[in-house]
Amino acid sequence: MKPKIENLYVHIPFCTHLCPYCDFPKERLAGNRMRDFLRGLQAEWAWAQEEFALSPRRIFFGGGTPTALSPSLLQELMEIAPWGQAEEWTVEANPDGLIASKTSLLREAGVTRISLGVQAFRPADLAWLGRRHDRATIATAVAHVRQAGIPLLNLDLIYGLPDQGPAEWQSTLEEACALQPDHISAYVITPEAGTELIRRIEQGEWHPDPDHESLLFLLTQRILESRGFSAYEISNFALPGKECRHHQAIWSGQDYLGLGPGAVSTVAGRRWRNIRDTTLYARSAESGPHPAHEENEICGPRERRAERILLGLRTSEGLAEETLHGQEACLSELVAKGWGRRFGGKFLLTPRGRLRADAVAAMLL
């Protein structure tokens, strides 16, 4: 029997410019490579139709910047598969370049949710992050999403930046809320290997401040919850009923199929990553039977349990205590420290505990 696929991720690796903090597979726009990508994706989709029982209910187009494609190429991307049949279809976008014709195209194709990479509003923050938009561009992009009739809007934000104190971060959160999004994702700036941020650290230009980041994290929880958002995951806040279903499915341990260069899949106990290079991805997808893989591993019961704990602790759903058999002493210690609470047969982290989610997971493993 073919494995059933209800969660689908599609990676579009192209960007108009490369940001210093991003470590996702990405490259600058190039016409020939975009054509390669579309051919490869079409071939991979054909393979997936033969290999799996495809019934995607939740689809996420990430990158890169999917909306960096020209309207004509974006239209071709929309037509590769019946993406619009999904219950939820999220597309990531940047404020710069999200013109009205693109949002209309996305809505007509069936997109139900836009995740807008705002990241910051202050000019100094935007410059440090290498972003090319400004407040006016953000407002225009949001207006285009609303005018197109796309039902749901998420705004991505980043905190822990240089010269970003509590007052500056609170102002950023208030500006974001003023745009009336349905969802806000607030991530701490994280240096990743191979990025420009690592070079800045090595040259003494900047250093992360974990204590300061913790302060801003708690401030985020307080401000957004006061505005009606629920912290349903450590970095994700939604108005009631506006959570990202794709994210929730992945966090709960459901299988997912990843398409595109560098995309990761976890299906029926196997995990693999497609080759990152766009040209090699396309060539191998077209020659078959599937794109070349950079990584392959078997996810046994022990690995899946560890993932359930790591991901479950990050969410407001928490962990069923029955999955933590034999950890009574540890759970009692975490509650006594004020890091966790027990409710309705579940163990959940408190805001203080969420600051230490990885450490708590290590204790439970």
If you had to describe this structure to a student in words, what would you say it looks like?
It comes from Verrucomicrobia subdivision 6 bacterium BACL9 MAG-120820-bin42. It holds the Pfam family Radical_SAM. Belongs to the anaerobic coproporphyrinogen-III oxidase family. HemW subfamily. Keywords: 4Fe-4S, Chaperone, Cytoplasm, Heme, Iron, Iron-sulfur, Metal-binding, S-adenosyl-L-methionine. This protein is of the alpha/beta class and about 375 residues long. It has two domains: about 5-250, Alpha-Beta Horseshoe (pyruvate-formate lyase- activating enzyme); about 300-365, no CATH class. It is built from 14 helices and 17 strands. The strands form four sheets. The chain has a nine-stranded mixed beta sheet, with helices on both faces. The radius of gyration is 21 Å and the shape is globular. The two termini are about 35 Å apart.
| Biggest sheet architecture | 9 strands, mixed
CATH superfamily of the largest domain: tm_1862 like domain
Anisotropy-based shape: globular
Q: Strand arrangement, largest sheet?
A: 9-10-8-7-6-5-4-1-11
What is the count of DSSP helices, taking H or I runs of 4+ residues?
14
**What share of residues are in beta strands?**
15-25%
The name of the CATH topology of the largest domain is pyruvate-formate lyase- activating enzyme
Alpha-beta classification: alpha/beta
Record field, number of beta strands: 17
Indicate the low-confidence ranges by residue numbers.
none
Question: What separation lies between the terminal Cα atoms?
Answer: 33 Å
